[in-house]
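Lab intake sheet, docking and co-folding queue.

SAMPLE TYPE: protein with bound small molecule
LIGAND NAME: adenosine-5'-triphosphate
LIGAND FORMAT: SMILES
REQUESTED OUTPUT: full 3D complex as structure tokens
PRIORITY: normal
SUBMITTED BY: R.K., bench team

The fields below were copied directly from the construct record.
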Amino acid sequence: MSGWQFGISDVVDITVVAIVVYFFLRLIRGTRAVQMLIGVAMVVIVYQMAQVFGLFTVEWIFGHFFSAFMVILVVLFQQEIRRALVRVAVNPLASGSTPTVTLLDELVESAFSLVHRGWGGLIVIERDTGLRHLFESGVEMNAPIRPDVIQSIFCPDAPMHDGAVIVCRDSRGGRVVAARVLLPLAQITALPGDFGTRHRAAVGLSEESDALVIVVSEERGDVHLVEEGALGEALNSRELHKALENSLSSMLNMQGKSTDMTGKA
Ligand SMILES: Nc1ncnc2c1ncn2[C@@H]1O[C@H](COP(=O)(O)OP(=O)(O)OP(=O)(O)O)[C@@H](O)[C@H]1O
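RESULT FIELD (auto-filled):
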């Protein structure tokens, strides 16, 4: 013990482990992975006790269980691992542009133009997590984000009204870069029973990425903003504008950029 030295590399070591544990716990908080983790912990405890008390057969069985442990962990936590990797693989170009007042206005007007027509819609706003892998399920396009464009996509008679549109920010505000995109669905238990697949798709994508999703309900005629796997309250246009502004400016994490969004000098 006397020869033990605590150096800068130990501080870095402990800090990195603490950060990894913190993000892991944050990632699995409130998910079924917590129950699975408790189950795994119980198996480990039983194995340790079998070793201490010399229970040969139990130790043998659990020893074989642990030889396949890594495979079991990957299978059990595949959803969480996928979500973590997608979040780590952030899009380095996405945060290069500022959401302008025009983008916020256009998003809000587009969503409520669907409400006024009694149509449903899903508008995904890409943030740091790249969503290009989802484009394959839909149709790539390059159109300005405007109420008439969004209406022409989500009109129930239009061939591309099913699925979601994806909006990317650019120097002029934002562009619709894909339509008719299929999103991953959240677990059926993630939402109250009166919400259907449109809302489940919004929650599903926001569980595995940092995208913001505006859901316009065809049935109820209300608008929700979905972020980090949580479906917020129904919002009016002012509330939606405020919520988008908050979420997009917190993503940029730069005070000065909110000036651009509000348009105030
Ligand atoms: N995986 C998915 N990805 C993207 N969009 C989807 C997905 N699944 C369903 N949708 C969209 O949701 C529509 C069906 O919505 P549904 O009525 O089942 O859900 P809902 O949540 O009750 O919505 P609403 O309140 O608008 O009725 C489909 O026509 C399709 O456009």
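REVIEWER NOTE: The first helix runs from residue 8 to 28.
SIGN-OFF: pending second check by T.M.
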